[in-house]
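Reopening this one. Same input as before:
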Amino acid sequence: METSRPASVDELAAAMRESAGTVRVRGSGTKWSWGTDAADPDVVVEISSMDRLVEHAAGDLVVTAQAGARLRDVQAVLGETGQWLALDPPEAGATIGGVVATATSGPRRLRFGTPRDLLIGVTVVLADGTVAKSGGKVVKNVAGYDLGKLFSGSFGTLGVIAECTFRLHPVAPARRVITIPVTDPGPLVKEILRSAVEPVALEWDGEHLLAVLESVEAAVDSQARSLVVLAGDGEVADQLPAGFGARPWTSGQVGLKITHRLSALSSAVDVVRRRLPGCRVAAHAGSGVLHVGVAHDATDIAAAVEQLRRDVAAHDGSVVVVEAPRDVKESLDVWGPVRGLEVMRRVKEQFDPDGRMSPGRFVGGI
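Same output, byte for byte:
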């Protein structure tokens, strides 16, 4: 297996032109095991040397960074001007390119959305070395083919993300975190979302709902008081607790991502608890996402996942096996049924006609 370590877009394009065989892209490796297990590639493109912050137009609230830049390093630079890129996935060391390629988000997706919502420009390199760009550093620029949305969540199967341009947000001057004990978060989440309270995140860890308010001091104080009254309980703090937003699984366990209709949170939690007794559940409450961690040998995982898929389909949902030991992945379809698969296949053929980029890693064997 050959390894390439380009430090610029030009070097990346040259490396792709000169390479032969199948290719996978690696940043910091935090999501290397995500997706379907496939044969080892002929070439691994390490983009960790492409780690520059290319431009920060603070007045326009826009930043451009190379794909190998670590998100936390970009945030540190942006923070010096009171700005931030509103992405907060829990994986330590996550790179810009990896976050976009896997469409990874965190608790604040409730307010700010996912990577594709913040991405306004992208530079990619295709398997034959062609460099393609779309969007730009001006937020209102919507002309051209939107490669950003196409490559977001593509798991490296269309080409290599080289640079990304995002719109930014100001860092809020004050924060309040309200911790509310609740074993069924659904009814309370509905009440919060109907109220005048505007949380940036609503995270449920299986026992407590954590509502995060970020704004000016007077606003977060007022909203925190309103939220405690609405919930009938709650402890108020200024800081996020340790492990906030972490995935509820550890190495060697099975990690699932379950989506559902926003109004079906309680039903989705009930289904998970019945099908996977003893599992750990966490939710981006209000965003329609559950994360589930279960021991490898806790039950017949393949059968439980298939049943879960049938159950959550009734709530417009899906089940993806994010992480699992190899034998578990070999026993089931990691991605499950996906709408628009034929369209995805045609897109794959257009961008990677020889099937060189991460073959077999994505949905339907793409």
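So the earlier flakiness isn't reproducible anymore. For the record, DSSP finds twelve helices and 18 strands in the chain.
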